Structure formats: C-alpha cells, structure tokens
UniProtKB/TrEMBL annotation:
GO molecular function: NADP binding; oxidoreductase activity; proton-translocating NAD(P)+ transhydrogenase activity
Upper taxonomic lineage: Bacteria, Pseudomonadati, Pseudomonadota, Gammaproteobacteria, Lysobacterales
Similarity remark: Belongs to the AlaDH/PNT family.
Protein name stated in the entry: proton-translocating NAD(P)(+) transhydrogenase
Cross-referenced SUPFAM superfamilies: Formate/glycerate dehydrogenase catalytic domain-like, NAD(P)-binding Rossmann-fold domains
Function, as annotated: The transhydrogenation between NADH and NADP is coupled to respiration and ATP hydrolysis and functions as a proton pump across the membrane.
GO terms, biological process: NADPH regeneration
Annotated GO CC locations: plasma membrane
Start and end residues of each Alanine dehydrogenase/pyridine nucleotide transhydrogenase NAD(H)-binding domain: 146-308
Length: 367
C-alpha cells in the first residue's frame, strides 16, 4: 500500500509559500507515494490546483488519512487536531516556540521533523531550508532598501552632474547577508559587509563587497557567531557608530539560531546617521538587529527610515516555494522508500532533526 502524503494549505497570515510543487509531486509519486493536496495550497505561489492534478496529485481536504504531512509553517491547532494520530509531519515547525503548539503536536502523537533543526553538514545542503529561504529574504530586503532610499544606488553621470553611488552596509554575512551583498552590488552600490566572524571576509570580497573590519572577532562553532563579551560589544559598537555616520543604507541580517536577534545597531547609532539614510532589518521576525525596529512596520526616526519587514521569503513565493519543496523532497527521500516510510535512526540527519528528541539507541518514546 502506497504511503499517503498530504500537502497542507498554509494558514499563517502573509504566508504564500507551499511545501510541494508539481515538480516535487511527480518525484513523490515516483517514490511510490499517493499525493493529496489541499485545495488552493499552491495558488498564492503560482501553482493552481490544475497544475497539481496534471502532475498526478489529487485535490481534497481529507487530512485524516495522511501518513506523511508536508507544510511550510506549523499548522494551527485546529488543523493539527485533524491529522492522523501518529502521522509524520515535516516543515519549519519550531515546536517549542509556543506551549500551545507543542501541546497540540504531542496530543496527536505526531512524529515531527522540524527542518530548522537539521544538522548543517555538507550532506544536508540539499535539504537546508534555512539557507534556501534566507537567500530569498536577503534579496528582497535589499530591493526594499533600494525602494525606500531617497537616492540612486549606482553612480550616474547626468547633464546635472555626477551622482555618487550609495554606500550600502550589510550587517551579517550568512546566506541572507551574502545574497544582500550580491544584490546591492548588482544594483551598482558601493557595498560593505560586516560580520564578527573573520572567515566571512573572503566570501564578502568574492561578491564584490568590501569587508568592514571593526577589530572584533566572534568566530564560533558550526559556522555561527559566539556571544560577544561586554567589552568586545562596547568596542564594536563604538567603531560601528562612527562608521554609520557615512553610510546611506544598512541591511541587517544577523541571527543566532534559537535566540532573539542580536541588537547591533543602537538607537544612539541611528540618531547619529544622516537624515535620508535607510535601515532595513531582515531580522525583525526575531526582534531585529536595530533597537529602532518595529516588526512589520516602517518608521522614521530623526530623518532615518527604519523598516522591519516580515515574511520576506514569502514575498518571492514562486522561487522560494520551488527551493523549499526541493529541500523537503530531498529530506523525505531519506525515509520514503518503495512507497513505505522506513526510518534509519542511525542516520544523523533523521536522528538529530526529529522532535521529540530520540534517546540514543532507543525508540522514540510515546508522548
């Protein structure tokens, strides 16, 4: 009997992505699954129901039969309550972010794979939803900055004289930050990238940006930054505040997994920037890198525009969904074999991603 796969229609406000596209539906079918898609699941991402039907999926709202359920964000409790007891749920779930969410997942005894927990190894790159979605977010944040800025990004020679290029600073050089560097450079700006991890210098420079060295290093494990000491933070902020006085546009992208976004740009720094400057805070969803950021709003303080856009990856729903769906399929392929779900708990990608955590050498305990 083929595994019953259900693709959910996202319910979160502003969410336009979908967890499976017609392309990945065909791959799931080839792996021996039966695929059912909720009506309208892909509509906002540019994939109408007919495209799924043409790919071989069925369109229906019968969630109760799904053995494997695919989503982007955690379904609301009312939807979780409809899922089959003991089903496998795959998505960006953040199960411990809210007690109600955790309780709902546990009450249905769902075996969940929160893809944000996926080990960030070379083998996992094709499944890395954080990277694929951050790339779109960095791109969109830079376009928003260009739109808000009251100046050109590129240098222009006009009959009215030469216009110098905008000076753009990208804070954070993860996937989102590097995409922001590349996008700002393509738009013709004079681009700098700042990150407390010194190993990012080469990556920033390879994209045409200049590495902003403030003399503070916070190189940590796994490619992430460690927490700065109080003295290190004070010195970093002093030097950064001085530098920001000559910057036209700042795009903030710094994040620490599982924690609120680090506050890098203080209100005092914002006050010291020139009127007409712009800050776009991609980290707004986790509190923001700038103290003046208001998530979901664009405000002006002392002549400086500060934007805290949400759902940036969802703004590019077509390509974001295509990348996300491929990530999800590549992960599911680890345990979808010959039309059946077969979990190899010796595979660290499964063992370290599953929630609740699985004790070494044992079965997943009932919840």
């Amino acid at each position: 009997m083929a595994v019953d796969v259900r693709v959910l229609k996202e319910a979160a406000s502003g969410e336009r992505r979908v967890a499976a596209t017609p392309e990945t539906v065909k791959k799931l079918l080839a792996a021996g699954a039966r695929v059912h898609v909720q009506p309208g699941a892909g509509q906002s991402a540019g994939f109408p129901d007919q495209a799924y039907l043409d790919a071989g999926a069925q369109i229906d709202d019968a969630l109760e039969q799904g053995e494997l359920v695919l989503c982007v964000q955690t379904p609301p409790p009312a939807v979780i309550a409809r899922l089959r007891q003991g089903a496998t749920l795959v998505g960006m779930l953040h199960p411990q972010a809210e007690p109600e969410r955790s309780s709902a997942l546990q009450s249905r005894q769902l075996q969940t794979f929160p893809l944000e927990r996926l080990p960030r190894t070379t083998r996992a790159q094709a499944m890395d939803v954080l990277s694929s979605q951050a790339g779109m977010a960095g791109y969109k944040a830079t376009l928003i900055a260009a739109q808000l800025a009251p100046r050109f990004f590129p240098m222009l020679t006009t009959a009215a004289g030469t216009i110098r290029p905008s000076k753009v600073l990208i804070v954070g050089a993860g996937v989102a930050g590097l995409q922001a560097v590349a996008t700002a450079k393509r738009l013709g700006a004079q681009v700098e990238g700042f990150d407390v991890r010194p190993e990012t210098r080469e990556q920033i420079e390879s994209l045409g940006g200049k590495f902003l060295d403030l003399g503070v290093s916070a190189a940590g494990e796994g490619g992430y930054a460690r927490q700065l000491t109080d003295d290190e933070r004070a010195e970093q902020q002093r030097r950064l505040a001085e530098h920001l006085k000559g910057v036209d546009v700042v795009v903030c992208t710094a994040a620490v997994p599982g924690r609120p976004a680090p506050k890098i740009i203080t209100a005092t720094m914002v006050d010291g920037m020139r009127p007409g400057s712009v800050i776009v805070d991609l980290a707004a969803e986790t509190g923001g890198n700038c103290e003046a950021t208001r998530p979901g709003e664009t405000v002006e303080t002392g002549g400086v525009i500060v934007a805290g856009p949400l759902d940036l990856a969802s703004m590019g729903a077509v390509h974001a969904s295509e990348m996300y769906a491929r990530n999800v399929y590549n992960f599911v392929a680890l345990f979808l074999k010959d039309g059946a779900l077969q979990f190899d708990w010796n595979d660290e990608l499964l063992a370290k991603t599953v929630w609740p955590a699985r004790p070494a050498g044992g079965e997943i305990p009932p919840v």
